[in-house]
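Hey, quick one: can you model this chain's 3D structure?
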Amino acid sequence: MASIKQVQITFDCAHPERVARFWCEVLGYVVPPPPEGFATWDDFNSSQPPGERDAWFACSDPSGVGPRLYFQRVPEGKVVKNRLHLDVRVGTGLVGEERLAALEAECARLIPLGAVRVRLLPADDDNESCLAMQDVEGNEFCLD
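Sure thing. Here's the predicted structure for all 144 residues.
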């Protein structure tokens, strides 16, 4: 049996490019160049049949280490809590007030990008604090 070397994380959303560009800012990811034969993504989109324009967008880790993120347009809106979410690791190795300060600083950076702070999940006997957040379309993620 072959081992899996890479994964792609796919988001269902209403506005793929908007959500992709949000996650580029959050993670330091980049938008790949447009497909061969097109100078820009707008040129590529214009060449598609009307029903396929703006149907998807992607971004990737410029170092090649992190997974590719793929965003696909779906007709239905988000109605329930995600069954999967991303943890954005900004407080790794930090505890107590130092960890909270790192989480709050990242939260303050993301809110002007369209993120929404949901709630602080305070430290307990097993876990350090984290911040529950939502992206520009309401998908849950945590600052951890």
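One thing worth noting: The CA atoms of residues 24 and 30 lie 6 Å apart.
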